[in-house]
Amino acid sequence: MKNETWQGWTEAEIASFQGIFLNWYHQEKRNLPWRANTNPYNIWISEIMLQQTRVDTVIAYFYRFMEEFPTIKDLAEADEQKLLKVWEGLGYYSRARNLKVAAQQIMEDFDGEFPETPDEISTLKGIGPYTTGAISSISFGLPEPAIDGNIQRVVSRLFEIDADITKASSRKIFDAATRTILSPEQPGEMNQAFMDLGSSICTPTSPKCELCPIQNFCLAYKNDRQTEFPVKSKKIKPKDVYYLAGAIENSKEEFLLMQRPETGLLAKMWQFPLQEISKEEYEEFQKTWQKEDNDQLTLDLVAEDLSPRIFDEWPVVWQKRHFGEIRHVFSHLRWHVLLFYGRATKNFTVENSRWATQEQFEHFVFPKPQQKLVEQFNKNQKVDKHF
Ligand code: SF4
Q: Which of 160, 161, 158, 135 is nearest to 146 (CA)?
């Protein structure tokens, strides 16, 4: 960083900036349930939920979470499947598991009281520098910046900071710039002002500078370079992975669900059986078993020796058309899943599996791709179902 422009601000400029920005925040701040008070438990849960998730979506989850786990102790003692159920649909499930571990840490290491210093807060599982800054400033009034994508966008434009935000080494530059202008009297309010400005006005592609309270201070606005900031090197493309999924039904209208392994992606969650295949095999399946023009999507089954070769070792006959594809993008992976329907020809069980009716699905924690598969199945099932 050649040009540390924030160092050129006078004390009077900083005071003026703080006054104008905080005034705007107090007038315009969004009314959100976790802003009703500064309880660190509320701030913590909301901040973890807000990572990768929109505010509108988080509100309902926040209320439900607080109803189920109103205290740190309740969270520390939470049944994991119940916790994941409350989290279902928010994604990034390790966040929920980390919450429980951190709650246990608070019970054991801090006598059940939320720690009050940034050093202690950052020892809690799943709490990184951003959440440490948010809790320290909002709940304990400490002058700590809470640097996330929003603040990086606003601050990079404000000072024309050309450090690449995808590099860890840029963090200290944004930290230094933000500390210079953070109000020591109202650090929590100012961090929240950045959050609100970044999500409503200083947006990634078309910032609404005409509505911006800090326009007069903004270097990128002055030089008409708003969209050049923040500087971001190209994101690594997620890796494509291909699966066949089987919606396998038995004579009691139950479907086979498999539990994922104890660790790793979507750990311990439930889904239809998945079989990973290559891209070439996937395209072959798509082509061979596609729905033809004028072909009603009936549940006609095919003789075993002609059927799609899926889960070959199981006693299942398959429908002769696939039920379509669902896609799901994780941060590092893109799943392509082709859904088939099959019928068990006799009773069988598989390790880590259960048979469940559709009515019982609500008792299982389904990750997003599985929710999409169930939707896809039901959409097609409505077309026709007869055996
Ligand atoms: S003037 Fe425009 S670019 Fe600058 S902080 Fe405001 S909205 Fe963002």
A: 135
How many CA atoms are closer than 13 Å to the CA of 249, on its beta-carbon side? 18
Name the residue at shortest CA distance from atom 1 of ligand 1. Answer: 215
Report the distance separating Cα 197 and Cα 194, nearest Å: 5
More confident residue, 119 or 284: 119
d(CA 40, CA 67): 16
Nearest atom (ligand 1) to Cα of 197: 7
**CATH code, 239-381:** 3.90.79.10
Distance 126 CA to ligand 1 centre (A): 31
Sign of the dihedral through C-alpha 72, 74, 77, 82 = negative
Q: From the alpha carbon of 207, which atom of ligand 1 is closest?
A: 7
Rounded to two decimals, what is the model's pTM? 0.76
Residues of the chain with CATH 1.10.340.30: 5-228
Exposure of 25 by Cβ count < 10 A (0-12 exposed, 13-18 middle, 19+ buried)?
Answer: buried
What's the DSSP call for residue 247? E
Q: What CATH number labels 5-228?
A: 1.10.340.30
Strand-pairing partners, residue 246, are 340
Instruction: Determine the Cα–Cα distance for residues 98 and 48; give it in Å rounded to an integer.
Output: 10
Q: What is the mean pLDDT of the chain?
A: 91
Write the residue with the smallest CA distance to atom 8 of ligand 1. Answer: 202
Domain with CATH 3.90.79.10 in the chain: 239-381
pLDDT of residue 49: 96
DSSP code of residue 199: H
Q: Is 116 a catalytic residue?
A: no
pLDDT value at residue 168: 87
Q: Could you tell me the distance, in angstroms and rounded to a whole number, from the CA of residue 223 to the centre of ligand 1?
A: 11
* pLDDT of res. 301: 64
Mean pLDDT of 144-155: 95
Alpha carbon of 10 to ligand 1 centroid (Å): 20
Looking from the CA of 199 toward its CB, the CA atoms found within 13 Å total: 16
Provide CB contacts within 8 A for 112, sequence distance 6+: 72, 73, 106
